[in-house]
Each structure stands twice: as structure tokens, then as C-alpha cells.
Design a protein that fits this description.
Layout: E1 27-33, H1 37-41, H2 43-52, E2 58-64, H3 70-74, E3 81-87, E4 90-96, E5 99-104, H4 109-117, E6 123-126, H5 147-153, H6 162-175, E7 180-184, H7 191-206, H8 208-217, E8 218-219, E9 223-226, H9 234-244, E10 252-254, E11 259-263, E12 279-281, H10 285-308, H11 314-319, H12 321-334, H13 347-358, H14 367-371, H15 374-391, H16 397-411, H17 428-437, H18 442-449, H19 453-461, H20 464-479, H21 482-492
Parallel strand pairs: 1-2, 1-6, 2-5, 3-10, 6-7, 7-8, 11-12
Antiparallel strand pairs: 3-4, 9-11
Helix pairs in contact: 4-6, 6-7, 7-8, 10-12, 10-13, 10-15, 10-16, 12-13, 15-16, 16-18, 16-20, 17-18, 18-20, 20-21
Bound molecules: 1,4-dihydronicotinamide adenine dinucleotide and D-mannonic acid (CS2).
Length: 495
Amino acid sequence: MNRLADGTLPSLAKGVGRPGYDRSRTRIGFAHIGVGAFHRCHQAEYIEDALEAGADDRAEIGINLRLPSIEDQLAQQDGLYTRLLVEGDKTEARVIGSIRKVLDAERSHRAALSALSHPGIDVITMTVTEKGYCHVPATGALDWQRPEIEADLQQATGRQSLPGFLAEVLTRRMTANAPVTLVSCDNIPGNGAILKVVVSDLAEAVDRPLAGWISDNVRFPSTMVDRIVPATQAEDLKLVEQLTGVVDKGVVVGETFRQWVIEDDFNRPRPRWDVAGAEFVRDVEPYEFIKMRVLNACQTALSYLGALSGLATSYDDVCDPLLRSFAERMISDESSAVLPDVPGMQVAPYLKLSLSRLSNPAIRHTNHQIATDGSQKINQRLLQPLRDRMARGMPSPLLETAVGGWVAYLAKSQPAFGATWQANDQIMPFVADTARASSGDIGTFARLFVAKRDIFGEALANDHAFADRIAAVASGLVRDGVRKTLGATMAGTGA
Ligand code: NAI
Ligand code: CS2
């Protein structure tokens, strides 16, 4: 079977979407850092739609700072790949052409730097996962203790972290007098503001004039991005081969729903992603709050409680009446009281929509994938609404149960608590030390764990009553199981 590429586009099976515009007439005006599954299923398709509509002539170059190699996936395919949308038993395959070139910075650091420094690049978007920003989750400040930041401070080129790499790019752009807009598309609240802090602080430390230039010439709009795109599985590649008739190593699979709300703060011609439904607004924060504290909060709570119940995916979780009802009540009885009123995103219908999206049986989003990097996700999804409620004197037994779920999930990855699975998070060395110090007592583990200030923040980390409640939930989940613990909590709340 042929590999997908410009030359094999005519052989694609009937019914498969493909670029209807002339790719060779586009120019590379955008760049993206972190061409993972999500970018290919979201921003790259908005760019494709704008090209298709003839509203914009800018295509993009995609660059990965870390594995997996994007060159291995897309270089031989001329940047083309299939994005498959799945809803129940319906599928819709479309070959996307908006990525014209790809580069791995680990292999070709200089080529990646020159591509991103080219004055023709107006906008650099990025999805590097929450941890890629190297910030302290509780405060948003640059984490100077991160090993990659410490290493980057020692060298002027070849920097590996996102802030370090961008500082190198911006040094070159300063020399070329080429202002640019940097758009974070990761699930972090105030992602633009956090990106600005980490890049500016690192620049200040290595080159003070650069920090001044950044402040005058670089914009950092925040964005709210949404489409559920689980990691691609081997069976997805096989299905796409059957549907398209070509081999494609860059397949991505997502749901049909998509949303993109972008702060209107560009210093170069604004992208025409609005033709594909993206909204440019003055303030993105309320949209982010709703998305992260409703959809993402449900996903996170369900991932931990679902894994602890022996379930595999968020679909399996929402099919379980107790778990579904828990997620529903956590938002409607607790988080909703501290959510803003956003036109078109009222909490009750948005919650209903979120649960119906999670009920799509064709989306196999595993609990362990969502559970990954909890230290980077918990703050915006669960802790912030919990703190907001505390500030108003409101108890939050359900949000605390979800936090206890996270603690129990991490504990159970450790030999002292059964080594039931492998958890992935940069805090695993701390988890391991805490488990050893707890001598197999889950309550002790939880109390030591929630004292971690860079995640829980000063107030929660010093709150002994909070620690006792989390310890009680985590102990219940580990000793008595999810059913009994949730049942008791929900009965106690009248839910
Ligand atoms: P993925 O695993 O397919 O891709 C991750 C990308 O980030 C890769 O290109 C990798 O090279 C890069 N990366 C990872 N760690 C990095 C680091 N420390 N520094 C620089 N680059 C790094 O993941 P996927 O699905 O593309 O998701 C990425 C992010 O996109 C998520 O963490 C989230 O913030 C955001 N997102 C994802 C959604 C989804 O449903 N998959 C939906 C909404 C947002
Ligand atoms: C998920 C998100 O992996 C996760 O943490 O909760 O990636 C989620 O699928 C997206 O935010 C949906 O837009």
C-alpha cells in the first residue's frame, strides 16, 4: 500500500476529504511547537479551514522540541495526515494539508531556530503539555529549580526547555527586528500570561536587553482550546488505512465537537481562524474557567475514581451511574457556585454537553492518560474552585473526594500500597519518598502529600483540617473501595 503524500492524494478512497486549495501557493506564515495529537486535530484544522475558504494564505511549519519525532511521522508524507472524527458508529476522514514542513529540534536545532526566526512567521502557536512551561503550578512563576531550566541558564544555544528555546528564537528575531505573537494552546488558565512570565523571566536572566525587546515586540494572547483527542492507537492506523487506502503514520482521532476562544491581542495580521468558528474576544479567562472547571474537572475526577474502580476509559466511567452522578453533582452542587456567567456557556447546559461528549463510545480516552501529570492539572480543575468556595465559607466534600481520588491513585502506584499501576508525573520521586515515609499508612501518605506547597499553595498546605479530610477520603477509597466511599459521601451531602 502507498504512503500518504502529495503524490498519492489522487489515489485516496472516495469520500475522504483532502485539500481543495493549491498547497504550493500557500506561504509559511505560522509555526507550531509540539505537533502532537491535539494540535493536528485542532489548530491545524482551523488553519486548513481558513486556507480552504481562501480567507488566509498562511500554512505552517511544525516543530517538536521533544519526542515523539514529528519528522518520522510526517516528513515523508509532505506534512499530510488524516484526522478522523468519530461519533458513535459514524466516522469522517479528512486529509489535512496545512502543515507544509516539519522539523525535530533535537535533531536539527539550528534549522528549527532559523525557521522560527524567519520574519515571514507572524504567529507561533504551541501545545507542549502543561509541564512544558516549567512553571510552579500554584503560583505561575518560572520554576528555577527545574533541571532543564538550570541547564538552559548555563548555555547560550542548544537550549532544551520551551522558555529557553523561545528565548533563543526571540534573540534572533530581535536582531532581525521581527515582532511576533506567541499563542499557548495548552490547558493552563491564563496560558498566555504564564507563557509571558516564563519566557520573560528566563530572558531577563540571560540577556536583559532581550527582555526589554520582548516586552515591546511580543504578544502573548491567552486561549481556551477544546476537542477531545485521545492518544492514537494501532487500531486507529489500521482503520484509517481501510478508509483511505493509504498508509498514514500521522493519524489523529477526535470527537466532532471543537471550540477555540482566543484573546484578541496580535501584533501581526490576525489569523482568519474565525472563518472556522474561532472566536476572538477581549477576555478569555471566563471561558477557560468554565471549560477547565467543568469538562476537564469531570475528566480528571472520573479518571482517578474510574481507575480506582478498575475501569479503563472516561466512556466506561460515565456509563457507571454512581460515577456519572458523582461528577454531575460535584459540578452542579459545588463548582458551579464559583463559576462566572459566560454568554453561551451557562454551567447547567455546558455540564450536560460535557457529559454527553464523554458518553461518545467511539472515543477511547483512557483513565491513565488523563491521570497523567495530575500535578500540572489539579490546580485549575479542582483546587481553585475548592479554594474559591473555602473563601466564601462553603464546604466542598465532593471536590475534596476527587482530590482524595488523585492522592489514592498516586499512592496505589507505589510498592507500599500495592504497585497497582504505573503513574506518570514529574512529582513521582516525591510520591515515592512520601510513600516510603508513610510505612504503608495511606492516611499518613495523604497528610504528607497535601503539605506540598508548590501544588497546594500555602493556605491549603498549612490547613490541617483539610489534610485530615483528604486523608479520610483517600483511606476510604483505598481500604473500602470507590463504591462505599462515594456512596457515603454523596449520602452525607444529600446528593
Ligand atoms: P501528545 O502527547 O500527542 O503531544 C505532546 C506534544 O508536546 C509533543 O509534540 C511533545 O513533543 C511535546 N512536549 C511534551 N513535553 C514537552 C516539554 N517538556 N517541552 C516541550 N515539548 C514537549 O499530547 P496532545 O494530545 O497533543 O496534548 C498536548 C496538550 O494539548 C495537552 O497537554 C493539553 O495541554 C492540550 N490539549 C489537549 C487536548 C486533548 O484532548 N488531547 C485537548 C485540549 C488541549
Ligand atoms: C484531558 C484533556 O488529558 C487530559 O487532561 O482532560 O486533554 C481534554 O481531553 C481536553 O482538554 C479537551 O479539550
